[in-house]
Design brief:
It is a single chain. With 219 residues, the chain is of the alpha/beta class. The chain has 2 domains: 3-123 and 200-218, Rossmann fold, CATH 3.40.50.1360; 131-195, ACT domain (Alpha-Beta Plaits), CATH 3.30.70. The chain has helices at 3-13, 30-39, 54-62, 100-109, 140-149, 179-187; strands at 23-26, 48-51, 76-81, 85-86, 92-93, 110-118, 131-135, 153-156, 167-172, 192-195, 197-198, 205-210, 213-218. It has a 6-stranded mixed β-sheet. A 4-stranded antiparallel β-sheet has the order 8-9-7-10. A 3-stranded antiparallel β-sheet has the order 4-5-11, covered by helices on one side. Helix 1 packs across helix 2 (30-39). The chain starts with a helix and ends with a strand. The structure holds ribulose-5-phosphate (5RP). Ribulose-5-phosphate (5RP) is lined by residues 27-31, 81-84, 94-100, 103.
Length: 219
């Protein structure tokens, strides 16, 4: 199976986690696009979606799925999103699509995070994928100096402005041995809006697309 076929497979499989009558939390990215397309088939059986990006909002609306303001929602049964990397404990790196801040906001509303990913995303330890960090523009240089002091190689993602007006710094070469500790540390740095380590908001379930079919991992 191609990577696109694996994404379609897990996008479809994620429908099993959508509770009829409920509002669904929806992530961002090419795997989530497959989920949104599958969700269109049951749009009359859900109350709507809370979206993590302008791109996903547009796709949801094109399918006729109502997109609700996150401020009107107290709790979501499930948040479904992709990942750039996921480790065997459900910790993830996210933000390859620059939507990490809204993704973490919607994930925070949800009872459980269901990650959908093809098997190339499963890694023993996070850090091969450059870590995305959303930063307030005036803090970029200082945040990059802090990453360099940790042994990372930070680089501003050129031409990218997030949905919140922030910029993205991608950091290569970090050894993320303790994802929760590193997430908490980087979150303290002035000017950091969101770090793309999802440890506090790790996955509860991962639907992994493999050549043998969908492998369900629970954490
Ligand atoms: C966007 C994300 C995506 O979930 C992540 O980049 C994976 O995307 P894709 O499904 O296209 O591989 O975090 O900010």
């Amino acid at each position: 199976m191609t990577q696109d076929e694996l994404k379609a497979l897990v996008g479809q499989a994620a429908l099993a986690y959508v509770q009829p009558g409920s509002v669904v939390g929806v992530g961002t990215g090419s795997t989530v696009n497959c989920f949104i397309d599958a969700l269109a088939g049951m749009k009359d059986r859900i109350a709507g979606a809370v979206s993590s990006s302008e791109k996903s909002t547009q796709r949801l609306r094109e399918h006729g799925i109502a997109v609700l303001d996150s401020n009107t929602i107290e709790r979501l049964p499930v948040y479904i999103d992709g990942a750039d990397e996921i480790d065997p404990r459900g910790h993830m790196i996210k933000g390859g699509g620059a939507a990490l801040t809204r993704e973490k906001i919607v994930a925070d509303l949800a009872e459980r995070f269901v990650c959908i990913a093809d098997e190339s995303k499963l890694v023993p330890t996070l850090g091969r994928f450059p870590l995305p960090v959303e930063v307030v523009p005036m803090a970029t240089a200082q945040v990059m100096r802090r990453f360099a002091a940790l042994g990372g190689q930070p680089q501003v993602r050129r031409g990218v402005v997030t949905d919140n007006g922030g910029c993205i710094v991608d950091v290569r070469g970090l050894a993320i041995a303790d994802p929760l500790a590193m997430e908490q540390e980087i979150n303290q740095w002035p000017g950091v809006v969101t770090v793309g380590i999802f440890a506090r908001h790790r996955a509860a379930v991962c639907l992994l697309g493999t050549a043998q079919g969908v492998r369900t991992m629970t954490f």
